[in-house]
Structures
1.
Amino acid sequence: MKTQIDELLERPHEGSLVHSAKDFKPNVDVRWCAGCGAISVLSPSQRLMPELGVPKEKIVYVSGIGCSGRFPYYMDTYGFHSIHGRALAIASGLKISRPDLSVWVVTGDGDNMSIGGNHFIHTCRRNVDLNIMMFNNEVYSLTKGQYSPTSHRGQITKSSPIGVLDDPFNPVALALGSGATFVARGHDKDRAQLQQLLKRAFEHKGTSFIEIYTNCRIFNDGAFDLYTNADTRDNHTIFLEHGKPLIFGKEKNRGIILDGYTPRAVSLEDGDYSVNDLLIHNEKDSTLAFILANMTYHEDLPRPMGVLQAIYREPYEARVTAQIEHEIATKGEGDLVKLLMGESSWVV
Amino acid sequence: MGKIIEHLEEATIRFAGDSGDGMQLVGTQFSDTSGFAGNEVNTFPDYPSEIRAPEGTLYGVSAFQVHFGKEHIHTTGDFIDVLVAMNASSLKVNKANLKIGGVILANTEGFDVRNLQLAGYANNPLEDGSLADYTVYAINMAHEIKSQLSDIDVPTKILAKTKNIFALGITYWLFNRPLEPTVEWINRKFKGKDDVVLANVHVLRAGWNFAEKHDLFQKQYVIDKSPLPRGRYRSLTGNQGVALGLVVAARKARLPLFLGSYPITPATEILQAISGYKKYGVRHLQAEDEIAGICSAIGAAIGGSLAATTTSGPGLSLKTEAMGLAVMTELPLVIIDVQRAGPSTGLPTKPEQSDLLMAMFGRHGEAPMPVLAAASPSDCFAMTLEAARIALKYMTPVLLLSDGYIGQASEPWRVPEAQALPDITADFATDRAAFAPYRRDPETLRRLWALPGFQGMEHRIGGLEKEDGSGNVSHDPANHERMVRIRAEKVERIANDIPEAQVEGEHAGDLLMISWGSTYGAAKTAFEKLRVSGQKLSHVHLRHLNPFPKNLGDILKRFKRVVVPELNSGQLKWLLQARYLKPVIGIGKVQGKPFKSVELENELKALLVEDEVRV
């Protein structure tokens, strides 16, 4: 049955579909701190949108609470700034009821890994077609500097003046373990790379999770310097590319081999190993994705960046639609008269 | 030998046995058949929260009560006329409610040494003369089934599970009920399992024939048909009523329906029903928790669905923050709370009306929300439509209160003509030039619904305070106060759009009883009985609790005393006193059980006598 929504959406898009980045900048001040990593995600997002070929009225940003929560105000699309931890649950309801929309979720390490952890694992499990950008700054910033579920052991924060006792989540491993189909990691110092990852997330059908290292200048400055600064990152990260060997290092002189199930960093210069011995990245290999994800907190290994996994499973909302269509095809469209009458009725 | 036939105006039968004895099933059948036979019916399933409590125990007794009669059947029956007791424990826990002279239909197998021990009987009550005040039919049902069905080839394993059906057959004989509706139901329910169908149909008939032929059974009861309005009827529980109401409301508003819910007793049947309605285009999410239930519904509301979430007390506690978000973002949302006894896990399967103040105030900040309450199973359907109407017309979350009693209880319901049900208004913003997210209709104060996907209305809203009109984030103190007042005023103005309270009895006078929710049945019965006996008493039943009907204050002024019966310690009483500054007498019951009408009758009588003394 045709609804009012169907009728409203039938109206054709007026004017050009060609947007520019400028079209996605609303007339408001960006209120993040100067130098905030989140700002580095905003411009790639605004630049990416025109590339997608999606009318901007079809794009919705949903956020939770935290510094990341402000993001929707800075994108001139539909946006919803919700409550702490619940962005994914809200976005799931929106996407399941409106599969025609491109739904983006902006969240943070506290919002998504702590108070919203349950929604995160279940969204990944269901594979709702959402694009999740998780700004990870390893600290609660909006509440002014307490440790978060991605803070590392020993970290000094306002709520851990003598050092954090918890071990952190590894967000990409948690996403993989929860069944996410697209899992990637980027950072705020390489906007071009970030824009590429965002595009891949958009193109992926199903839950896309991108962990984005975003530096918090005020409460956790420099947390990711080793992995993001131009002079150190090549030796401490490895950018994963599908079908290519795992090479890293400023001089491209190091690589990753698999020793049993254990990844090891080796030199390509001392004659023991050549590029032919190296692990080849395969985004479709879930076992490999786990191995790569678990390199994250190893001091002897480079931190994996880029797309760890991209596999296809039918998105949840598509299954809902298919089930409805199948029911209607086999049983006919539901008739209110019959529904009200129920299985058995009688006449007085 | 001829049997005696006695005419009755009404009767109450209670099927009681172990959780696994199938008492809910035969109770439902007896209820449906009584409706089919043209009576007014009211039922009450009363079961333990354990799924299969240890057999034979007092706490494992599961019961289903059916009150049926020619007229004025508003409750599930105060006292039992016929008790079906499948074991000793079911007799023990229900005997106190059995009328002197009532009938006990006992399955003697359930009165063996072990069962007697578990029930705490030193001697077998069926044999020790302690039941001399009752008519006792003590039957070894398994034995009778075997001997009656000796010529039918059905596995013993299947026959062993038909004792409840045998008992049902006997009760059909007792009340001269037709077997066809249950035969039809058996055929439908066990379609494809020929052995099971054959066994159950034969056992049902065997029960009837056993009573018909056996000298033990001397008396049959006849209850005349009720003067019901003509039409097509079906049996409806409150939870079914809500599920149907949601589907119908969405159709009438021409919107897609979305339900986001998490299973919880006693509301789960709504989620279950909706999950089967895919051919009606319904989308639902069995969410990971109560919070995701309401939040997914809010997400669907953003996208233009009629969105709903269903729950019970503990779930309502979890949803409170998200309710505040729906208030702040002024999105339509239907929240159904099938109340159960609390606090905390409380008594999950037992009803209470103790979430009223939480429904009114249970959100941080000032977050007013319309609150409605259904009076009966069939009223759950009507009030779900009303909740959707208000939510969509005023762009607000609406809380509908039901409870475990009317949610699970059933009554015959005259099926409405789908076409004749009124349309529901849901307006979307389409005028781009005039659009601002929080621009309001001057009369209703509603904002317009702007649909993602609609060009030219891209906007951002959320839980931060909004600037009046533009909807931009605003921390301006004066604006915040203005918005708090507007949100309150919007809900208050709904009073202009709901029916006025109706007074039954004198329009003014000494004593006014105000009931709400599921206490309707007991209150109405008590009221009718007292009126018949010549007492001066008036009655108002409230379905709209926030805002109250516009004329309620005037009505209160016209009575010297106001009394409110409710299944809590005085929550509506509290609201009325606070709102109208009038002392209210409370009759509270918090036992996880509905009122008996006689309890209210006695309380009211005492109040009326008190008045005579005072005069």
Note: Residues 4-229+314-324 of chain A form a domain with the Rossmann fold fold (CATH 3.40.50.970).
2.
Amino acid sequence: MSYRYQLEDLLYLLYPAAPAIVDAISTNRRRVEHGLLSVGLKIHCLNDGAQFNEIVSELGGAQNILEVNRYKNQYASLCWVLPPVGNARTAIQLLEAIELATKSNIFNNDDIQIQVCSPNRLAPRYAALLAIAFYLGSDVLRLYTLGDFATTFSKFHHASKYDRGKRLVLYDAVGDFDKGFHWWGLPFHGRPFVLTQLPFDNGRTDILTAKSKLDIQNINLVASLFCHLEEDGFWFQFGMQFEKDIRSLLKRHQLEHIPGAPWVRSEHSPKDALVEHGDDAFMLAMQELMSYTLEDVIRVNRLGKHYFSEKTPDGPMGILWDMKTLLQKYRAKILEKSNLLQRGKKDGEVHDTGASA
Amino acid sequence: MTRAHQPNSNPIQIPQTVPNPLYTPQPAPERAPERVPEKVPAKVDHSPGETRGFFYLIFCACSCIVARRRTNKKERRS
């Protein structure tokens, strides 16, 4: 991600509109919470983007801030790259502060598409599961067309290694990478081996179409679990269990073949040589997932809003319920263990084992 | 909105977003209107009252006069 300004410059501009939030952001901007990954954000503006004009010009003008990136949604007037922060909570606060400063909505706004960027290129099979978990766990279910995923990097005039196709998940195109966030490595005497930097030099896995605060939290959670699984992080075990659980969830709903579709495209996708073929195959899987989910929505609405809150789950409850429960379960597990570690640290049981932390 | 057209039929409107029913904010439970009591008990007055207040005022005035006289005496001696 390229951005030619500092977070401090942006915070200075946001301070008059949201002083308390800006204070919280500046305190926690590098803080990694519960060993989860850092979060990067891009705002794709599908209207004229006039609400951001003032801030962008104060930061250095559209030419320096926006046009430095050639990448954006095909139909977007602008793509504003925000500096990465250490945790999902601070990322949400940053967007809230921008909302207050611009007096316009970013969350749940049809004219705004939030791209959530997580460090490390996940393997395609994990990227697929990340996209599925994001879609089913969202509080706003979208009915996509292939055009919704079109970006300026979908396909170049000549075949390029940066052809990303029209997909929900995107890999980076080798830009700037901020690795200055703590990484919880494999447990050492039951405690995370904390590194001051991420253990990979480059690479990102992005979800293109987040809309809500819950989306950002869910993407951060699932991307962290899979990243720790791939890179031998502290949450390796949870990542492995999560993969198993999500695959069995899909199997219960007869969707086990869905992750096999080309959900993401990279220069090393041999099966996906022709971009359009991959796009079509991905969209077929996406449509199947969307129609199955829509049926579940209709079923839940028919049963009544209070169905799930009153009935105890003793039988099949539907894919939306299953995904919600799964995400809640893993969030609770991580919080519980992380809080235990924190308590141990306060009592002097846990010592700082960081290599350089 | 996405529109699907069929010959000789009205266009069908398909929404682009559907709220997840598990996350839809539930309406606040309807509260029964608060009951107004038929008879309101008389308010009990715990204030010192006029008579007690009057004697308190006289006591304060006297103590001020005494204090004033004492200071005058001290000033004359010095």
Note: Chain B has one helix and three strands.
